[in-house]
Amino acid sequence: MCQLLGLNANTPTDLVFSFTGFAHRAEEHKDGFGIAFFEGPGARLFVDAQSATQSPVAEMIRHYPIRSRHILAHIRKATQGRVALENTHPFMRELWGRYWVFAHNGNLVDFQPKLHAAFRPVGDTDSERAFCWLMQELAKNHASLPSVEHLTMTLAELVPTVARHGTFNFLLSHGEALWAHCSTHLHYIERSHPFAAAQLQDADMTVDFSAHTTPQDRVALVVTQPLTCNEDWQALRSGELAVFVDGHRAI
Amino acid sequence: MCQLLGLNANTPTDLVFSFTGFAHRAEEHKDGFGIAFFEGPGARLFVDAQSATQSPVAEMIRHYPIRSRHILAHIRKATQGRVALENTHPFMRELWGRYWVFAHNGNLVDFQPKLHAAFRPVGDTDSERAFCWLMQELAKNHASLPSVEHLTMTLAELVPTVARHGTFNFLLSHGEALWAHCSTHLHYIERSHPFAAAQLQDADMTVDFSAHTTPQDRVALVVTQPLTCNEDWQALRSGELAVFVDGHRAI
Q: Structure pTM?
């Protein structure tokens, strides 16, 4: 099973601590990794078909504190689609003059939607097909960029069509909100003042967030399995679509 | 003026030598840099709004020999659009299930084309507008991916519409061919057996390609100004659209 990690914050935040724990999990998920950082409407997408434990790109990310309010990461264990760069999550497309980034964990069986001209998969994964279909249907439903609330309503209508084909845990962002849909495993935490120290589950590393934050900072993290062992992670229910804005859960 | 660098080869080739010389030019072009590598149909796009002389991303690329048959790089000196990630070249979009990557050098005046739903700029540069318009018009002209020859004929019809608005030196690739259009400055070289040693113009560095190649290898490089001082670079003429396939000029 692949692993997902998403960050949504009200102030640009680096992911060095969480990514370090997350990348440790790549020992079992060695078929590529990817991470996308929004900076304003711009986005950087780093993908590598190598494992995050060995990739020079992952090594750079562990040491280069890229600060962002919206980050999505994925480590891959291939189910459908061969191990290749074009099959590495997150995937990115442009819609309404915004970049959209998507990463999926799970396996969709017999999901072969009709895809018209505007969004076509480059690789051969069920995940990229699902993303292209979501983008196509969002574009059909709205002529220009809607509010996060309206986008959430449309997504809530669309997602079950995909989810009935299998496991559809996903993260989606357009640099303004982070959507998280849970079929099986997805956990989140909201960190805010007063910040405490957190201890990674996968590595011997502790960070005292109170030393790196201001009282106004708010950060939400969404991840397949909790990253820290001393914080109170919330599990999303099967079929739940959560939305994070400005570092806390909005819907 | 920005600087462009493109590579097209018949075998995966690393750009460490050429990028080292190219990145030296970033001292005067400090408003960001970007580089895209195709690996099969997959693509990796590294962009940074920092100068290529200082960026940790550029530092990684100077030391990590990513091998690719199609590479596009750009160092930016902003003319239109502020210094921001969303304005950093190359730009990438998907069309017909292929990624397309585009980088521009020059300045387009009063180019405000009608852009319909399918391709919209995320940033505010003339360059991204021109790219979106080219993608839109290509999509209008062909229902599915045409041959390189047909794409070239369509591009040759489209490009003058943009070029009459100003300087339109650009590089474009979809992972199968490299198009280079010249308004003012663009030079290319084709390297093939017998390979010789090349000496960078911008740094004290020489590479003997004969030690790193086989007799079958062919590599074409396209760049704003020649990178080496002991090779015979060809200047493209104003208005010329060149196409490189498998490491040599096809049209």
A: 0.94
Q: Which chain B residues are closer than 8 Å to A100 by Cβ?
A: none
- Cβ separation A97–B120 shorter than 8 A: yes
Split into its structural domains, chain B has a count of: 1
CATH code of the domain covering residue A133: 3.60.20.10
Residue of B nearest to A87 (CA): B42
Q: What angle do CA B151, B153, B159 make, to 5 degrees?
A: 90
**Do B27 and B51 meet the contact criterion of CB atoms below 8 Å apart?**
yes
With pLDDT > 90 as the criterion, what percentage of chain B qualifies? 66
Give the model confidence (pLDDT) of A36-77 as tens digits. Answer: 999 999 999 998 888 877 888 888 888 788 899 999 999 888
Q: Can A182 be counted among the known catalytic residues?
A: no
Catalytic pick from A2, A132, A182, A229?
A2
Q: What DSSP letter does each residue of B141-191 carry, written as one string?
A: H-SS---HHHHHHHHHHHHHHHHTTB--EEEEE-SS-EEEE-SS--EEEEE
Angstrom distance (rounded) from CA B219 to CA B226: 15
Domain that holds residue A173: 3-249
Average pLDDT (B149-176) is 98
Count interface pairs A-B at CB distance under 8 A.
Answer: 95
Question: How confident is residue B133, by pLDDT bands cut at 50, 70 and 90?
Answer: very high
Q: Is the CB of B94 less than 8 angstroms away from the CB of A96?
A: no
Nearest residue on chain A to B136, alpha-carbon basis: A118
Rg for chain A, CA atoms, rounded: 17
Distance from CA of A44 to the nearest CA of B (A): 6
Query: Which residues 6+ apart lie within 8 Å of A204 measured at CB?
Result: none
